[in-house]
Amino acid sequence: MSHNHKEHQIVLTAFGTSTASSGIYQSLKQQFEERFKQSIPIGFHARVGNPKLKTVLEGLLLQKEETVIVTPLFLITGKVVSD
């Protein structure tokens, strides 16, 4: 396998409106990018979030062999999470 080929594309997702609304999102994004040595997009699943997670996922340019890993930020334990 070539060293230039990556096997995984990480995508961060959070509940919010945009990275401008919270500096913590930019900080986490930067830490992920430094750790995994790749550009990591972030999408929001709030109704008014921008960019929307769906838009980010649809816009990914992937190789056939790549796996997308969606990593949620700040999950709060609740009924949906525990079920």
Structure description:
The protein has 83 residues and is α/β, with parallel strands linked by helices. Helices cover 29% and strands 19% of the residues. The chain contains 3 helices and 3 strands, in the order E-H-E-H-E-H. A 3-stranded parallel sheet has the order 2-1-3. The radius of gyration is 14 Å and the shape is globular.
Alpha carbon gap, first and last residue: 39 Å
What value does the Rg take, in angstroms? Answer: 14 Å
Order of helices and strands: EHEHEH
Low-confidence parts? none
How would the global form be characterised? globular
Residue-averaged pLDDT: 81
Percentage of residues in strands: 15-25%
**How many beta strands in the DSSP annotation?**
3
Tally the helices. 3
Largest sheet: 3 strands, parallel
Strands of the largest sheet, in order across it? 2-1-3
Helix fraction?
A: 25-40%
Helix/strand/pairing category: alpha/beta
Short synopsis of the structure:
The protein has about 80 residues and is α/β, with parallel strands linked by helices. It has helices at about 25-35, 55-60, 80; strands at about 10-15, 40-45, 65-70.
Topology:
Blueprint lengths: L7 E7 L8 H14 L5 E3 L8 H6 L8 E6 L6 H4 L1
Parallel strand pairs: 1-2, 1-3
Give short descriptive properties of this protein.
three-stranded parallel sheet, alpha/beta, 3 helices, about 80 residues, globular
